[in-house]
Model the fold of this input.
Amino acid sequence: MNRLPLSRMSRAMLITLVGLLALPACSDDDEETPNIPDAGPRPDAGTDGGSDAGPDGGEPEPDGGSDAGTWVTEFSCEGKPQATLTFSPGQEQDLQNAVNDLAPCTSIKLGAGTFHFDNAVTIRQDGITISGAGRGAQGEATGGSASTVLDFSNATANTNGLDVVGKLFTVRDVALWNAQKDALRVENSANVYIQRIRTEWALENTESNGKYGIYPVKSRYVVIEDSEAYNAADAGIYVGQTRYAIVRRNIAKKNVAGIEIENTKYAYVEGNTATDNTTGLVVFDLPGNPIKGTDILIVDNIITGNNRPNFASVTASSSTVSQVPAGTGTFILASRRVEFTGNTWGKNNTVDIAVLSGLAIEDDVALWSAGFFNFASADVYIHGNTFQGESGIAVDNGNTDPQRRPLGALVGGVYQYARVAAEIEHVEHVLWDGMDPLPPAAAETTSHNKLNLCFTGNTLPEPNVAAVVDFDLANVATHLQAGPQNVAAAFGETRRFKQGEAPFNCAGFTPALSLPQP
Amino acid sequence: MKRTPYMKHLGLAAVVLAAVMAACSGDDEDPPGANVPDAGDAATDAGPDAGRPDGGDAGDAGDAGDAGDAGDAGDGGPQVPDGGESTGPDSGTPDASTALPNKLSDLKLFTGSPAEGNFQPVEGNLPYELTTPLFSDYALKSRTLAIPAGKTAAYAETDVLDLPVGTYITKTFSFPPDLREPDKDVRPIETRVLLRREEGWEAVSYLWNESLTDADKVAGGKVFKNYQVINAQGETETFDYLVPSRNQCQKCHHVVDANENQHLLPIGVKARYLNREHAYGGQAKNQLQHLADLGKLTGLPAADLIPHAPNAFDSSAASLDQRARTYLDINCAHCHNPKAQPGITSRLFLDIKTTDEFSNGVCKRPGSAGSGVGGEFDIVPGDHATSILWYRLNTEESGKMMPEIGRALRHDEGSQLISDWIDAMPPRACK
Done:
């Protein structure tokens, strides 16, 4: 994530944004060409394959994704010749030779034990299945009688573990240990099944660990299930720039980010456990990316105790998660049509859920043109979840750093004051940055909800205490960063709401999410 | 037509082999032994040809690999196919249904062997050089191009030449023990082969056996752990030399089509890099013109209309900006262009055709660059030290260095060039 450029956010800019925001609303008009300087490519231009049944067609895409299409099988091995190759530990070079000479629809069976690789295992073929004897347990660097570990500790620099491009790819029952870069990278692929695997690095809290554990990117129709990801220096499970993803029953621990859904359309995230990361489960779009993320359903996940100090937060970091304060349960940025239900949050020291505009990390509107100005977070529906409490009690674990993790520093500053001045003991469960681009009054005194953040029917530890804070990040930043600090004034830019209070007592968005499954 | 040795010091092969085996026998379990292909384009090669922005170079005499070619007729090896024949390699034209053979010798693209000191391309398998090559850990590279008999390549102004089905491109990677003496005791490690089939390009590498009698196909690649060379400063560099697996070839050699499928593609065989002279039988001649004269290239325009990439390391050859952009183009743009996956993902385009400075990285924040990569922007004008682009091509840290594959060592000259280029930009704060 980039530095928060909040102090530069001006009212003039907000006014500019008003014009931009009006555009999608005008998309029914005959004049389809938005009157924006340098509008850039339209959403998904050039990235959608013909299989995407989504509402594309070259028109600016409406936010409401009523028709998510169907789960498409782009490649099948039915009726085709199929072969099985079997390898045991010690046959690494044979395996490498075979992997680079695969016919389509080949299954590779790996025996129990430990395979030692000095290079990535690189797959560029369709219909490939890799299966081992089992993923083993957290911390196991070697395979046993019922587990298979692919050990990349001694692999040549700058290589991933499993590096895949192909349609109908399956990997199951293996562990990927100490990859030099990403443990499993699947790019530009379709019909991907990642089942019962484990990605792990030996050392905790190590910035030089690989960035991503399980990393499907720019792919279609991806299932990640019953897998585990530990100690990644960025994200344990990272679904990037993908259309149609199911992420279920996985465990992500000791990563900077547990599970990330980035610039992704149609993701179903169910029954995962994200605990003991810096941040548990995050959804965001990044600027400059042509896939505008939308339609994310997050159900029955456990997102608790994500207080690990941010070990990616070092000098000259530029990654998104390196700037997230420790203790952030869920982080939503530049995302829309995101629904949370049945989830459990608690013991996240900074906040259970933060909902932010993309402008918080990149205030140059032009840079959001690739995704059709997808900076706003809108249509976020949080209902029927359980908040256990003991969250928001120590922003960034009390170790705020305005340079490396500015968001934490701003929030921490305000709540330090709030505790003394207003007896507010913790950050509310949901922090909304209030960077609503529709025009607020010069001195905003009431919150509106044009972007439709809804918080209803959740189980709360203290039902009579405010649950949502409208935290005007831009103005808070002005008071805390520019000129003489005025903490009281910064606190004055925040407004609190109990569950059920207007304007956040809305009932979601229409059309409701309807995600296809295989 | 004169005989021209393809690889040098052939008479010394046995001696050299013994010497280098000894030199490499430390803790290296797989010592590449000894001996030599033509050291076409070490980074130290700053032949005078590079100076011309246009194609009309004369007197390409400074090339380390070929300087000794003229009149060297005494080795008894097969003749190099430099003459006027337009025939292709006499065999080896692939049947699309057959796999590449397991032995390099079975491709019939070369005769002899480094062990015997007479390793030579066959007639029709033409050696060539690039004005600025891709850096690969200071490996010396010898290239050949074999267009089958009766077929022709079509000229392309900016893209890779349109090469006909059956074309082979080879590149032999070699190291001298001491980079300060790039002609001495050079030993080939691998010969990479690209084959144009009906359905597209295929790539695989052949690994030279220890006795250098032949090279074996290694689809799975090979890592030489703790490979050692003495660098330009006289220090021993220890690194992992990677012979890429077949699939890893695609990491650099690829283009993404309109249906999001990846296809393999050569990198250097573009007019702008081929537009230089090469000594054919002692006679210096423009490489593209030579191909055209052989009837192997159609559509070649007049010399002054052919683009020319300068030698990036010859400051008299072109402006700093032109040289830096050329270096980035040949080293980075096979991925960082609008039609390759990393370019599509990162939106950082370093190809020579992309000229808007933001897409080139100026004040551009990476989408996701990871931790500790020197700064927040790809290029901060005037300040290489906080520019991620420079950081990543300068570092040797795994997971942070670029290119992603094919480099374990820093290219000192390349790092300096890009540093100078960024520092020469009018300083400006990025936001």
